[in-house]
Amino acid sequence: MLLLVDASEGPLPQTRFVLKKALERELPVILVINKIDRPDARIDEVIDEVYDLFIDLDATEDQLDFPVMMTNARAGTAALRGEPAGGACSPSSTRSSPTFRPPPATRRPPSSSW
Ligand SMILES: Nc1nc2c(ncn2[C@@H]2O[C@H](COP(=O)(O)OP(=O)(O)O)[C@@H](O)[C@H]2O)c(=O)[nH]1
Ligand SMILES: [Mg+2]
Hints:
Elements: E1 2-6, H1 13-24, E2 30-34, H2 43-56, H3 61-64, E3 68-72, E4 77-80, H4 91-95
Parallel strand pairs: 1-2, 2-3
Antiparallel strand pairs: 3-4
Bound molecules: guanosine-5'-diphosphate (GDP) and magnesium ion.
Guanosine-5'-diphosphate binds next to loops.
């Protein structure tokens, strides 16, 4: 689940609402901080606020270990926190994270009849 938070606004009441649902369902959460280009962006503070929100919602240690993606949706750029700010988010930038797993699937032969 992508938890989208504005880099200047920080988490809003609806952020709390959806995060609560996600934690209850044990969905892996990826925090997406958007509008990092804005002059009033307060990225580290906002990440701390989201972290506090997780704690307030009784998140487990594992849930607290969420990856953070930084985006400028206007420019179409995205990068995982701690990685060089790049261009468009590529599969290789996400493949290294255990959070990004493909859905389980079973291989089946193609159906022979309609
Ligand atoms: N500077 C900047 N503006 C953005 C970015 N992403 C969206 N916007 C602008 O934000 C405005 C929309 O607001 P937004 O917070 O995304 O949606 P809302 O919360 O549903 O109103 C539009 O003018 C977008 O162009 C970004 O990464 N950087
Ligand atoms: Mg907004």
